[in-house]
């Protein structure tokens, strides 16, 4: 099945802004994060189709996954 | 009082009151500059320093700002700019909280940090800066780290809390304290070219959503650092939200998060569910 992955801020560096990926059913957000070589502890807001999601959530056909970095400086 | 009002009216020009005349009135009638400012605003006179605010803030709104109190947590990258902008706006009471002294690595971005102040307390620099910019602003400084034990005292009478902290764990504690005391929290955070802003209104939990993935108490700023312009931009967005909350002017949008990416010059708006 196909999902779209959108990356924000420095997650795009040496990766992409938006990419359609083919994944197996049941694949979680966390698995995609790992596949993209993004450290899990660097992931902040996770959106699935514009709604708040989490790393352990499985994706469905046609989902749009957005990943923002965890930002905590001041 | 009548004498003070008459003096201020006599010395105003085009509805504006110069700072030397405010000082003269303060000396003559034994008043604090803030008291002179309040009397002036109550009688439709605008301190001349605010004349460029006049088209966007009414005298009544300027008076509301003078009577407001904002608690700023952190006097570093974000906090320095937040304090500066609040003081210039004429927010009458500012509480500043920071346990740290300036170090060399603060010089690249922290407005209050100068060469001469390395080793000095950040809250002292904030107090001096505010006094130098706008003597009508009364500042209360807490040279200590925010925690649950001191939260009631620090947040006492605050209309809004402003987040300039550099720790996710402490932010979550602040969010909890603000929630318990029914105080809106304007949250901002930065890392590298990026940052975000959100407002937690009483009864909401937006920071819990933003930081659901928090494991270490810190974000990617530990790896990316922070340049000069990111804190300035996010602090300004925070202050714009603070002003609207203080003035209750705009329809406020709760549960909204604005992510800023200055490298790609993108702003992304996200809405969070209720609860």
Task: Tell me about this structure.
The complex is a heterodimer of chains A (about 70) and B (about 280). Chain A is mainly beta and about 70 residues long. Chain A has a single domain, classed as Ubiquitin-like (UB roll) (Roll). In chain A, about 10% of the residues lie in helices and about 35% in strands. Chain A contains one helix and five strands; from the N terminus they run ββαβββ. Chain A has one helix at about 30-35, and strands spanning about 1-5, 20, 45-50, 50, 65-70. In chain A, strands 2-1-5-3-4 form a five-stranded mixed beta sheet, with no helix packed on it. In chain A, β3 and β4 form a beta hairpin. The model of chain A has no long low-confidence stretch (mean pLDDT about 95). With about 280 residues, chain B is of the alpha/beta class. Chain B has two domains: about 1-60; about 70-270, Rossmann fold (3-Layer(aba) Sandwich), CATH 3.40.50. Chain B is built from eleven helices and ten strands. Chain B has helices at about 1-10, 20-30, 35-40, 60-65, 75-90, 120-135, 150-155, 170-180, 205-210, 220-225, 230-245, and strands at about 15, 45, 70-75, 95, 140, 160-165, 185-190, 195-200, 255-260, 265-270. In chain B, strands 5-4-3-6-7-8-9-10 form an eight-stranded mixed beta sheet, sandwiched between helices. The mean pLDDT of chain B is about 95. The interface between A and B is large, with 25 and 49 residues.
Task: Note the topology.
The complex is a heterodimer of chains A (74) and B (275).
Chain A (H helix, E strand, L loop, with lengths): L1 E6 L10 E5 L6 H7 L7 E6 L2 E2 L11 E6 L5
Parallel strand pairs in A: 1-5
Antiparallel strand pairs in A: 1-2, 3-4, 3-5
Chain B lengths: L1 H10 L4 E2 L1 H10 L4 H10 L3 E2 L11 H8 L2 E5 L3 H13 L3 E5 L24 H12 L4 E5 L5 H8 L4 E4 L4 H13 L4 E7 L2 E7 L5 H5 L10 H4 L4 H19 L8 E6 L4 E6 L4
Parallel strand pairs in B: 1-2, 3-4, 3-6, 4-5, 6-7
Antiparallel strand pairs in B: 7-8, 8-9, 9-10
Helix pairs in contact in B: 2-3, 3-4, 5-6, 5-11, 7-8
